[in-house]
Amino acid sequence: MQKGIIFSIILILAIAIGVVLIVSKQGNKPDDSITKNISQTTSQDIGGQTTLKDTIENSNEPSATLADGIYSIDIINSKIKWFCVIHKGYVLLKSGKITIEDNKITKGSFEILMDSIVDIDIDYYLMKATLENTLKSNMFFDVRKYPESVFKITGVTDKGDNRYLINGDLKIKDIVKPVSFISTITIKNDTLYAKSERFSINRTVWGITIYSKNYPQTDDSFLFTDYIDFVITLVMTKEGE
């Protein structure tokens, strides 16, 4: 009976404290890359109602002209979706601006509201709240001490067919590391729409090393993947002249 109770507690803990629910002795092999693109034909939207193309064929056609101006984030219709093996959810943005000059993105900066981390795949409220609170705790993102993360664009390359390679610096817990991803960007009626392809970051380079095989652990019974996947969806409106 006592062993059964202990096993149940351990099982619940494994669900709650991981960024992912994969208990594995194998873990990830060490990887020097901070980000990596994931090639997929389709992936299901977090809402579970629509699918999207994550991989677009290369094209030599130039992208449509981006209208000059400063575009501000629509925080209601923008979000960052996250995926961790079987878990998924989203985090909201606090603010954001993109500047377009001579039909090119010259700068951009976004504040991510870390206290808004939400899981959407767990139906049981207690387990859902436990996972969310653990991700917000000092074991992971420590949102009380670091309430915002910041992404600043450092360079944009037009890949054609409205696809752009976005390079930038991502600051999490006062640690800044480079991140790159592909995003489709279009502008219609003074509204900018952007949606990234699915990409990954390695959480450990921002100091989130708990339950990583590649770092010493006080308890190596539970080892979780180092990688978190994201899809960024932005809606931005042009500021008045």
Describe this structure in words.
The chain contains two helices and 13 strands. With 241 residues, the chain is mainly β. The strands form two sheets. Strands 1, 4, 5, 6, 7, 8, 9, 10, 11, 12 and 13 form an eleven-stranded antiparallel sheet that branches. The chain has a two-stranded antiparallel sheet with strand order 2-3. Helix 1 crosses helix 2 (125-136). It is elongated and about 55 Å long. Residues 1-60 have low confidence and may be disordered.
Question: What are the key terms here?
Answer:
241 residues; Lipocalin; eleven-stranded antiparallel β-sheet; two-stranded antiparallel ribbon; disordered N terminus
Distance between the termini: 71 Å
Number of helices: 2
The CATH topology corresponds to Lipocalin
CATH architecture: Beta Barrel
- What is the top-level CATH class? Mainly Beta
Q: What is the total tally of β strands?
A: 13
Q: Could you estimate the helical fraction of the residues in percent?
A: 10-25%
What integer is the average pLDDT?
80
Could you state the order of secondary-structure elements as H and E?
Answer: HEEEEEEEHEEEEEE
Low-confidence stretches: 1-60
Oligomer: single chain
Question: Biggest sheet: strands, sense, closure?
Answer: 11 strands, antiparallel
**Overall spatial form:** elongated
How many structural domains can be distinguished in the coordinates? 1
Find the structural class using helix and strand composition. mainly beta
Cα-based radius of gyration, to the nearest Å: 19 Å
